[in-house]
Specification:
78% helix
Amino acid sequence: MATTYAKPTKMPTRRTIIDAASNHIYHQGYGATSYAKVAEDANLVKGNVQYHFKSKEALLKAVIDQQVQDIRRQLEEWSLDCGTAYDCIERFIAMVENNADNLSQYGCPIGTLNSELGKNNRDQQDHAKVMFDLYLRWIEARFRSFLPREQAKSKAEQLMAMAQGTSILTHAYRDAGIVHRQAEMMRHWLSEVCAQS
């Protein structure tokens, strides 16, 4: 009979800690995030988090960097998978609508983080703003397929403003229905922009 050995316990990875920190920051805010709370969420001891991240700021930077990578990957998938400019841009609207429940409970992860950091941590906020930049540039590029550069930029900003306004109201009123109603209005607006052009 063969002898069986227990597999050695795998050391916690940076990604495990980053994911736990990302969830905690989204649900509780960066100000309420600590090594101890991240370790608890990741089922680790505090020392594991401190080993990988020497400061809370370094952990936040890693969270933002990972989210930036995830957004880039998402946008690449959208670009490969969608057809017309309307279809592509509608993916962004659908993403907002599909997150209606989270938006009602916690707000927009990008918007709330940027808002919090913008009050007392502008250096990190400049770094977090890249997440907005990625969506804006991608949407603008889709609009530029049928609009002049300045109009395309303006329309991308308008759509982002509509999405963020929707997120704020949804969170303030804890009403996911706002997202669904406003998503339909965004689609109607997008159809008109495409039709006029």
